[in-house]
Amino acid sequence: MAFNPRSQNRIIQKSSANPDDLTMNKTLIFAFVLASTASLTPAHAQTYQWKDGNGKTVISDTPPPASARGSRSIGVHQPAVVTEKPAESTAETKAAEAAEASAPLSTAEKDMEFRKRQQEAREKAEKDAKEAAALRDRRETCERARQNYRALQSTQPVLQYDQKGERQLMDNRQRQQELERTRRIMQEACK
To answer: What is the phi/psi pair of residue 88, to 5°?
Structure first.
């Protein structure tokens, strides 16, 4: 097929857009962008606040029961909080507390309980590690004290360093003092 400039001109003329079509295309694109943006925004759970039968203020992501007083919607999801008012200990309040305890927990309450368990586990692990380190130190101290005690009880001469850093032979009085000090250390460390 040969090149014909007249046919090319017709193609260009047919594809040129009508101004009304451009406005309609822009409107459609804007509507599409708006709809996709609205669908991508995060969905927030509704949060409610009300007073229960015991006069406690309850904030939860579940709607209040029909018998709730002063219920209102307070917006986006917040952790459930229950403020307690001293109540009389009656069978009715105990039954209400048992029903409340058996109610399913909200996501925020589950998250709070999970974090609390994690913190308790960390604290327990740290405490156990400290206790294990203290036990190791006590055992090492006990073993060193026993070795020193055996060396001091032997008849072999024992050397010690004086304040100038020179070695001196320990006399009997010094040896007895060191034996007594080592015995006290063993009593405390070797329990």
So the answer is: -75, 145
- Dump pLDDT digits (tens) for 44-71: 557 878 888 888 888 887 888 877 777 7
Taking only the tens place, the pLDDT of each residue in 7-18 is: 555 555 555 556
158 with 152: CB under 8 angstroms? yes
If one counts every other C-beta atom within 10 angstroms of the C-beta of residue 145, the result is 20
Distance CA 94, CA 88 (A): 10
Contact 58, 64 (CB under 8 A): yes
Please say whether the beta carbons of 92 and 78 come within 8 A: no
Token digits for 89?
């200990």
Q: What stretches of the chain show up as alpha helix (H) in DSSP?
A: 5-15, 19-40, 91-102, 107-153, 172-189
Cα–Cα distance between 95 and 101 in angstroms, integer? 10
d(CA 77, CA 129): 39
**DSSP 8-state class, residue 163:** T
Name the β-bridge partners of 168. Answer: 160
Q: Do 49 and 27 meet the contact criterion of CB atoms below 8 Å apart?
A: no
